Amino acid sequence: MGRGVAYAVFILPVVFTVIFSAAVMAGALQELERDLDMLYFVSDEPRLGHQSEIAILGLQKQYTTSEPVQIQVQIEDNSFECGDLYITIYSEGKKSVITQSGFFSQCYDDSGILPIDDRFSEVISDPGSYELVVELKDTSQRNTISESGKFTVK
Predict the structure, then answer these.
(1) How many helices (H) and strands (E) does the chain have?
(2) Contact (CB, 8 A) for 45 and 108
């Protein structure tokens, strides 16, 4: 009797789960307009042997507490025509966000310089080490390219 109870409690649910999930997956894949789209996984790992598609222009290694951090971004990836640009400054080690700016619906020409018709300019008044992270998300919000740079404020 002990084997029958163990079989009913532990083994049968696993067997039914595998059979049911296989049937659901087969049914979903039989639909004509259904496909598995797995191309949109974004990794934080740097790609070896590949240049960054985005470059930070004008970032200096050191600023004073009264000097503004002013940058522009150059996009070198032809697959991005329009997107939302986010520029975030973190304290050392990405512990906290100091400032974040968003530039939405940035559609750029052949120069690829962003932001268009706007400027990123922030004054960091507390001395320390900081990291500036630039992210561009395409209009579908599925693809993201990013770049970062470090600087200090004295």
Answers:
(1) 2, 9
(2) no
What's the domain count of the chain? 2
The CATH number of residue 143's host domain is 2.60.40.2550
Same domain? 76 vs 142: yes
What is the rounded distance in angstroms from the CA atom of residue 29 to the CA atom of residue 21? 12
- Structural domain containing residue 99: 54-153
The reply to whether 98 and 141 lie within a common domain is yes
- Shared domain for 23 and 59, answered yes or no, is no
Q: Give the predicted TM-score (pTM) of the model.
A: 0.63
Task: Give the CA distances from residue 80 to residues 114, 116, 144, in Å, rounded to whole numbers and listed in that order.
Answer: 12, 15, 9
* CA gyration radius, the chain: 24
| Residue 58 contacts residue 114 (beta carbons within 8 Å) | no
Per-residue pLDDT of the chain (154 residues; tens, 9 = 90+): 677 787 777 888 888 899 988 888 887 777 665 555 544 444 444 443 345 588 899 999 999 999 999 999 988 776 677 888 999 999 987 678 999 999 888 887 767 788 887 888 999 999 999 999 999 888 777 778 889 999 999 9
